[in-house]
């Protein structure tokens, strides 16, 4: 009765089920790993933002850059802005999703490596080949406080640096690139500006970048549970299909033959009696 499982249809169906189960289990663990990464990132951001500001030179060097555990930590730097080496980072959005630029300006201390400061966001103009009007940085020596960030690369962002960009524009926030443009060493990483002392007199000032979200965990945990439920449902579905096919075959095998095609057994017909011979029955 079970030889039909060797048919082409059932062999393909069984192989497909055997492939889907481990694939869905793996996808569930992948989503669970994404959930754990998001939780760890939230914990890192929360603890870093609560830390007291320290000089950026204590957390980074030109050779190594900041430790991954120091990301988002408040850091300070003192110096004079090198406005002549300011660049705009293309294709950046603000908190409302509007397209614009991030404004990168090196801060040069009296002694020691320079610091790359992301001063904030400015809206793009209608002509993307022309830089919009950007409020100038404060003149004279200032002390800035910002969130310590790691350098952007194509590997960690997926963004590729382009050639032929308009002058003064770039695609990545990278201290190594800006150090080469400045012509002097620069601490690895950069600061997302949060405060300037004395206050920036520019009016209107650049739009400061919002604090990174560290409360939402996304739907990765729910997706993991869904994939595991799907994996559990595959063998259940396979068994249900097997039972239905088996019941159909048993019903077809138990169906009686009917010569007339009516599905009812043929009735027995009466046999004719033999004629009685003349002269009466034999003695």
UniProtKB/TrEMBL annotation:
<keyword id="KW-1003">Cell membrane</keyword>
<comment type="similarity">
    <text>Belongs to the SURF1 family.</text>
</comment>
<feature type="transmembrane region" description="Helical">
    <location>
        <begin position="221"/>
        <end position="241"/>
    </location>
</feature>
<protein>
    <recommendedName>
        <fullName>SURF1-like protein</fullName>
    </recommendedName>
</protein>
<dbReference type="InterPro" id="IPR045214">
    <property type="entry name" value="Surf1/Surf4"/>
</dbReference>
<feature type="region of interest" description="Disordered">
    <location>
        <begin position="250"/>
        <end position="283"/>
    </location>
</feature>
<feature type="compositionally biased region" description="Pro residues">
    <location>
        <begin position="273"/>
        <end position="283"/>
    </location>
</feature>
<dbReference type="Pfam" id="PF02104">
    <property type="entry name" value="SURF1"/>
</dbReference>
<keyword id="KW-0812">Transmembrane</keyword>
<dbReference type="InterPro" id="IPR002994">
    <property type="entry name" value="Surf1/Shy1"/>
</dbReference>
<dbReference type="GO" id="GO:0005886">
    <property type="term" value="C:plasma membrane"/>
</dbReference>
<keyword id="KW-0472">Membrane</keyword>
<keyword id="KW-1133">Transmembrane helix</keyword>
<feature type="region of interest" description="Disordered">
    <location>
        <begin position="52"/>
        <end position="71"/>
    </location>
</feature>
């Amino acid at each position: 009765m079970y030889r039909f499982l060797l048919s082409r249809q059932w062999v393909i169906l069984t192989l497909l089920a055997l492939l889907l189960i481990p694939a869905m289990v793996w996808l569930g663990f992948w989503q669970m790993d994404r959930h754990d990464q998001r939780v760890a990132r939230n914990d890192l951001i929360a603890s870093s933002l609560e830390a007291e500001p320290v000089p950026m030179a204590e957390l980074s060097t030109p050779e190594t850059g900041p430790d991954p555990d120091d990301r988002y930590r408040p850091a300070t730097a003192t110096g004079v802005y090198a406005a002549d080496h300011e660049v705009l980072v293309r294709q950046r959005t603000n908190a409302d999703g509007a397209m614009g630029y991030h404004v990168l300006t090196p801060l040069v201390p009296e002694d020691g490596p320079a610091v790359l400061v992301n001063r904030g966001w400015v809206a793009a103009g209608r002509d993307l080949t022309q830089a919009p009007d950007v409020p100038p940085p404060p003149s004279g020596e200032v002390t800035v406080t910002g969130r310590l960030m790691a350098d952007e690369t194509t590997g960690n962002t997926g963004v590729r640096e382009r050639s032929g960009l308009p002058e003064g524009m770039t695609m990545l926030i990278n201290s190594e690139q800006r150090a080469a443009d400045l012509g002097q060493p620069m601490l690895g990483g950069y600061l997302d500006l949060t405060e300037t002392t004395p206050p920036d007199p520019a009016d209107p000032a650049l739009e400061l970048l919002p604090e990174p979200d560290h409360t939402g965990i996304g739907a990765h945990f729910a997706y993991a549970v869904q994939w595991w439920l799907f994996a559990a449902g595959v063998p259940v579905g396979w068994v249900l299909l097997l039972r239905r096919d088996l019941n159909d075959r048993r019903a077809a095998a138990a169906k009686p033959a009917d010569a007339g095609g009516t599905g009812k057994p043929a009735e027995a017909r009466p046999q004719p009696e033999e004629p009685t011979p003349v002269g009466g029955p034999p003695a």
